[in-house]
Amino acid sequence: LWPHHFDMATLASLDEEASEESRSINIGLSFGDGSYGEPYWYVTPWPKPSDELPSLSAGHWHSEGFVAAVLPASEHPGEDPDGEARAFLRSADVACRTLLGASHP
Q1: Which pLDDT tens digit goes with each residue over 43-87?
Q2: Which of 24, 54, 78, 93 has the smallest number of Cβ neighbours within 10 A?
Q3: Which of 40, 42, 18, 39 is nearest to 91 (CA)?
């Protein structure tokens, strides 16, 4: 739980040796903030990509202030929100790994 943003997240390091330039993916859930006034899932690649952002199976790319694949609660109101969120997270993880030149698990 990150108190400075009040969101829950995990950081997946993609490089064996940690440094400020190490590639990583931050995967989390925000309860709403200045960017979105509702809960949303996010997947953020680091470092910030300069390439064209690939398509996602759900959600969209946020690029104002930070770059992240984002799935707001209002964009997955279907009958299986848990399954939709899992599909988004998988798709966004693959997209971020592709952007960062990392292998897919």
Answers
A1: 999 999 887 999 998 999 999 989 999 999 998 767 888 888 999
A2: 78
A3: 42
Neighbouring C-beta atoms of residue 7, cutoff 10 Å = 18
Give the closest residue to 7 by CA, choosing from 49, 70, 99, 90.
70
Query: Whole-model pTM?
Result: 0.88
Extract long-range pairs of 30-39: CB within 8 Å, 24+ residues apart: 30/5, 30/6, 31/6, 31/7, 33/5, 33/6, 33/7, 35/62, 35/64, 35/65, 36/70, 36/72, 38/72, 38/73, 38/74, 39/72, 39/73
Amino acid at 81: P
